[in-house]
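Internal tracking record. Fields below are filled automatically when a chain is submitted to the structure queue. Please do not edit lines marked as system-generated. If the sequence contains nonstandard residues, flag them in the REMARKS field before resubmitting.
Queue: standard
Priority: normal
Entity type: single polypeptide chain
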Amino acid sequence: MTTHSRVLNINIPANAKWTHNGVTVAGGHGKGDATNQLNRPLGLFVDDDQTVLIADHLNHRVMQWKNGDTTNGQVVAGGKGKGNGLHQLFHPTDVLIDKETDSLIICDCGNRRVVRWSRRSGTTQGEILIDNINCYGL
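SYSTEM-GENERATED OUTPUT FOLLOWS
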């Protein structure tokens, strides 16, 4: 694997002011467990189609927002309460997409494991890839 690093030399004046022009693309409706809310969001992944995935730590789920749909997200992994079943997550901390298998790879911190969930419709549980590991990020 080849990695390339580039250092940019940007001169920001000491009296510079930030312009507030951000757009909320996920959550934004206070803390909670509805599909338009998050509770301690941690890991964030944005794919090539601008789909946003978020490890929703205290809701024990992974949420997805498709590009342009900022109203409600979709639970794509977990969301069945905290636990150690293959259909559950316990304090997920990170998520990414494995394009080769069209799956989510999730750091399931509270269960000390890394799991894979298929992105195919109808998927109700994941499979353990690595067990008994302290996992905080991928």
